[in-house]
Amino acid sequence: MWSPSPVTILGSFLFIYLYAITRKREYALSTIPEILTTRGYPSEVHHVTTPDGYILTLHRIPHGRNNTNSNKPVLVLQGILLSSRHFVFMGVEQNLGYKLADEGYDVWLADVRGCYSSRNHTTLNPDKDPKFWYFSWDEMGTIDVPVLIDYILETTHQPNLYYVGYSQGSALFFIAMSTRPEYNAKVKVHVGLAPVAYLNHKKTHPFQIVAHWNVVFDTLLAIFGIDEFPPPIFTFMKRVTCRVSPDFCNYVFMVLFGYKASEVNSTVLKIFLEDFPIPVSRKHAVHVLQLIESGYFRRYDFGGDNIEVYGTSTPPSFNLSAITAKSHLLYSDEDDMVTDVEIDKLCEDLGDACAEKFLITEGTIRHLDWVIGTGVQELGYSKLLSVMANYTVLGFYLYPVSANIEDVHLTIPQILTKYGYPSEYCFKQTRAGTPRNIFFFETLRCCRSGARLRFLNTFLKVFRTDEIPPPSFAIPKTVTCRVSPFVCNQLLISMFGYKQSGVNSTVFKIFLQTAPVPISRKQGIHVLQLMKSGYFRRYDFGRNNVKVYGTSTPPTFNLSSVTAKNHLFYSDNDNIVTNVEIDRLCEELGGACTEKLLISGGTITHMDWVFGTGVRGLVYSKLVNVLANY
Q1: pLDDT tens digit string along 480-518?
Q2: Active-site annotation holds for 47
Q3: How many helices (H) and strands (E) does the chain have?
Q4: CB atoms within 10 A of CB 308
Q5: Mean pLDDT of 59-77
Q6: Cis peptide before 279, with omega less than 30 degrees from 0?
Q7: pLDDT, tens only, 158-187
Q8: Catalytic hit among 367, 526, 571, 606
Q9: What are phi and psi of 159, to 5 degrees?
Q10: For position 201, what pLDDT does the model report?
């Protein structure tokens, strides 16, 4: 009769023990809707089917906790071996998904084919059909990304969206925009966090060694029938290792994928490792290894079958010069996978589409820290939000397209639509029943005398001039500016203030077609009254002040009652707004005056704030940063 040896009994108990501890997760993993609902955020789950039958999942956060629905959709795409869950699992103050929602964006977290929530197909079973796993970056970029973009724009009724790609997410953007160039117009801006394209400059990284043997790697996986990598056995081994020796486990993952242990909360790391790495297809993994080994950013290498598939012996490279959507590339000098050499090459190949390379030099962000690190919120995410703010409707004016004289006869909605921006026309009726447009108007320093003011008002009344300048003003303006552009320019410079050398000539011609825009006679007189009196007060009716206000002089506006925060930007070369007036204004605002920012250097006069070329670099970047802080 057979009796088991002590070794067999011990081995059996050890296997049962290891199986038991790996079957039970140390931390229960909630779904994305559960996480969002628990933290007070709205949640929606959407599904979209690709032309080749893959069912992709999008998790939507339509707005933040303290704002309403947004018309600014942003598609956020994860890195390799990650899922959309990793953008929300840590907490409100740490994860990118929450920050975008609270900044007023309509957030769409997407999972490409093969990822846990997108592990579905109309006809193929991922657990039984190897054909399900026959895809690489090629299919993800050329099929999945365009389908996701179209679905989001159709659902939100917006003409374009923001795109945030982390690591692989940026690579898929580059593939989509280079192979489907019509989609460039559907993306306002792409912000790449540790963006991946070229991958072969870190020669000492372990993946570089594996990449050299990518053909052998592919063959071995095929022999053992492994279509999903890493295979389920890896999860078993990972959990055993991480339970038995957490320090060794952390070290292995830190070397392979790059994160700074001091920047990662230990509990967060344990939760993260419960479902990391997310399996990908064998072809997907081999494609990445091919790119690491070759140094090119190109399509999947079929080896001897390249001639049949592509018509060439080597796979074609993705044509990055075909991309026109702007990209801002954010990266760190501590990243083991994305180096400055690769970013420089990527930016060079993108050409004008590379709007910015932003290097974080503090040395606290490695590759995975963009997802699980604690320092990335201040160093990385704040920059990301600032970039995106530049491309709001306000950003249309901050980063305008080339001036076109043909646009002069277009309405605002027509101009915005022409250049791909959403537009709405709102009509507000005042209590008096008259539709109003609100203008902010600064006028020249003249008519200091009260007698002259009264004479001017009477003169305008006699000639029934209710709007100034009157329509007849257009004739002498047009004649003067056509016959003598120099005289026209000098008059406008002395009256309204702008620096001729800082104004694009075409922009100036467009501006003169409609400027100055008429205002009411009473509004013009009111401004002149304020300039004469030196007070910021209500309209002066003269002898009728007692009847209207109960006092002989009009009451002053009580600036001390203002509580909304104010940031006051002004220039030392402005001939209408001086530092004395700004100091007085800030003093009267009290605690509501948050900042006075003087632009020195003598390059910005009064009208330069609207159409000067120098104002963009000196002012608008600061303005956008102020808005981003709120």
Answers
A1: 776 677 677 666 666 666 565 555 566 666 666 666 777
A2: no
A3: 29, 14
A4: 8
A5: 87
A6: no
A7: 989 999 999 999 999 999 999 999 999 999
A8: 367
A9: -80, -20
A10: 65
Residues 277-294 have a mean pLDDT of: 89
- Length of the chain measured in residues: 630
DSSP state of 130: G
Grouping H, G, I as helix, E, B as strand and the rest as coil, residue 63 is coil
Q: CA 400, CA 419: separation in Å to the nearest integer?
A: 9
Neighbours of 573 (CB within 10 A): 16
User: ∠ at Cα 405 (401, 411), nearest 5°?
Assistant: 80
Query: What contacts 587, CB < 8 A, 6 or more positions away?
Result: 593
Q: Residue 435 carries which DSSP code? A: B
The mean pLDDT value of the chain amounts to 78
Q: What does the pLDDT read at residue 603?
A: 66
- The rounded distance, in Å, linking the Cα atoms of 262 and 276 is 19
pLDDT band at 404 (very low <50, low <70, confident <90, very high): low
Q: Compute the distance between CA of residue 300 and CA of residue 287 in angstroms, rounded to an integer.
A: 6
Token pair, residue 203, equals 């020669």
Which DSSP state fits 127?
A: T
Q: Could you report the per-residue pLDDT of 315-369, keeping only the tens digit for each?
A: 999 999 999 999 999 999 888 788 899 999 999 999 999 999 999 887 678 888 8
**Helical H segments across 24-159, by residue range:** 32-38, 96-102, 137-139, 145-156
**Pairwise CA distance, residues 630 & 579, whole Å:** 26
52 or 103: which leads in pLDDT: 52
DSSP of 280-300? EEHHHHHHHHHHHHH---B--
Out of 43, 117, 118, 167, the active site residue is 167
Strand runs (DSSP E) across 348-486, as ranges?
A: 354-360, 467-468
* Residues in a beta bridge with 70: none
Helical H segments across 576-620, by residue range: 579-589, 608-611, 615
Q: What angle do CA 116, 118, 119 make, to 5 degrees?
A: 65
Contacts 24+ apart (CB under 8 A), 32-37: 32/59, 32/84, 32/85, 32/88, 32/109, 32/117, 33/59, 35/85, 35/88, 35/89, 36/61, 36/88
Give CA separation, 299 vs 39, 178, 203, 217, in Å: 41, 12, 22, 18
**Amino acid 393: pLDDT:** 47
Q: Which ranges constitute the DSSP H helices of 368-449?
A: 369-372, 376, 382-389, 393-398, 412-418
What are the beta bridge partners of residue 73? 106
pTM of the model: 0.61
The residues near 242 (Cβ < 8 Å, ≥ 6 apart) are 249, 273
As to burial, measured by CB atoms within 10 angstroms (0-12 exposed, 13-18 middle, 19+ buried), residue 374 is middle
- Can you say whether the dihedral through the CA atoms of 446, 451, 455, 457 is positive or negative? positive
C-alpha 549/C-alpha 137 separation (Å) is 73
Q: How far apart are the C-alpha atoms of 225 and 219, rounded to whole Å? A: 10
Instruction: Give me the domains of the chain, ranges plus CATH numbers.
Output: 32-396 (3.40.50.1820)
- Note if the bond before 230 is cis, omega within 30 degrees: yes
By CB neighbour count within 10 A (0-12 exposed, 13-18 middle, 19+ buried), where does 547 fall?
A: exposed
Amino acid 302 reads: F
Q: Say which residues have a Cβ less than 8 Å from residue 212's Cβ, sequence separation at least 6.
A: 293
pLDDT per position as a tens digit, 452-485: 555 555 655 555 556 666 665 666 766 677 667 7
- Up-side HSE of residue 111: CA atoms within 13 Å toward CB? 28
Q: Does 367 qualify as catalytic in the annotation?
A: yes
